[in-house]
Amino acid sequence: MLAETICSAVSAAGLGIAAITAYRKRFLSAARIAAYSLVPIGLVMTGAVEWLADTAFSPVAWAGFGVLGAAWLLFLSTRAVERRRGGRRKVADAASPGAVAPAASSSSRAVTAKPRTGSTPAGEDFSDIEAILKKHGI
Q1: What letter does residue 125 receive in the DSSP assignment?
Q2: Rounded to two decimals, what is the model's pTM?
Q3: Cα distance between residue 138 and residue 136, in whole Å
Q4: What DSSP element (H or E) covers 79?
Q5: What angle do CA 15, 24, 30 make, to 5 degrees?
Q6: pLDDT tens, position by position, 84-118
Q7: For residues 137 and 130, what is the distance between their CA atoms, to the nearest angstrom?
Q8: Cα separation of 70 and 76, whole Å?
Q9: How far, in Å, CA of 11 to CA of 8, rounded?
């Protein structure tokens, strides 16, 4: 009952301010203020304020919010563990080996790297890099 009275008073005050604003020839602002001031009384008339007041003082409702919070924390923690392990990527790679370019032929996907020999220095052997660039079509 108190919440409904407060909402009605806020709406009445808002409509009074809207009337004063309209008297000052600011009709657009007055209409906007009137719209905002009608929201609390509309919530009272639909019963949303009573439902909200009943929910705020209900232990069952708070327990329900606690259960929702626990579910949210479980969801976030499983996502964090999944990202840390890289879980979905391994499953996707095993299912389809050509996930990068599914339309590419199997011969273009196969990368043949030359075995490294001790005669070439590590900085001058770019065959691995070329193979990777060719694989991605660059």
Answers
A1: -
A2: 0.46
A3: 6
A4: helix 59-85
A5: 35
A6: 888 655 555 566 555 555 555 555 555 555 555 55
A7: 10
A8: 10
A9: 5
